[in-house]
Recover the amino acids of this structure.
């Protein structure tokens, strides 16, 4: 089992460019999440998908869109990147949404926007 | 709504004990604890679901005080491998089914 995988691992963008971060899990989990992590800020939820076919906003959704492509895959899109979106992005999954289930994190994507 | 962790940073010598606290302004359904090494993904440590519940494995344990809306993580006889940043994640009672993470506590263990 690979667990949660993310691509790419590193990315540099210019302001205004767009890109999609990919995430996949092979644990048959129902729920998936996108977080961003900035120094001293902890993990902040961008969007999550409680189950296939549903998505909901988290704490910091502005400037992002998501797609739950199927049960395995959950992508995050930046339509017009801004320097404020420079961060480390983590995808996570859990058996079900809510606090009763541990979350498994991917290795992260380190994004720099110039 | 973000839980508050204290202290922000701790420096210990190997073998010493540490306590990390996580406090919420709202009633909680659950508290998660994760550890993250530099440049790596967070790794799950434990979940506490009931008020007063205590869990642990090896020399790391945690408690959940429902009335005080807080959880504490206890690291006993710390080892070098315990170094990293510890995060609590909380789910509000009756709220949306998602976690909100604290800002983290950086733990450094020196030989």
């Amino acid at each position: 089992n690979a667990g949660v995988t993310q691509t790419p691992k590193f990315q540099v963008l210019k302001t205004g460019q767009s890109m999609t971060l990919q995430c996949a899990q092979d644990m048959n989990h129902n729920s998936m999440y996108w977080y961003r992590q900035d120094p001293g800020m902890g993990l902040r939820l961008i969007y999550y998908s409680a189950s296939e076919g549903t998505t909901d906003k988290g704490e910091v959704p502005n400037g992002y869109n998501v797609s739950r492509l199927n049960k395995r895959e959950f992508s995050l899109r930046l339509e017009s990147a801004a320097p404020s979106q420079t961060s480390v992005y983590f995808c996570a999954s859990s058996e079900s949404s809510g606090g009763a289930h541990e979350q498994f994190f991917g290795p992260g994507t380190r994004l720099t926007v110039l | 709504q973000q839980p508050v962790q204290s202290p922000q940073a701790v420096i210990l010598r190997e073998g010493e004990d540490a306590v990390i606290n996580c406090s919420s302004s709202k009633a909680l359904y659950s508290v998660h604890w994760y550890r993250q090494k530099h440049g790596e993904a967070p790794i799950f440590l434990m979940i506490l679901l009931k008020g007063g519940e205590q869990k642990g494995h090896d020399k790391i344990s945690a408690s959940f005080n429902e009335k005080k809306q807080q959880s504490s993580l206890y690291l006993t006889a710390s080892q070098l491998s315990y170094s990293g940043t510890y995060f609590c994640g909380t789910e509000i009672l009756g709220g949306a089914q998602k976690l909100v993470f604290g800002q983290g506590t950086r733990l450094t263990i020196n030989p």
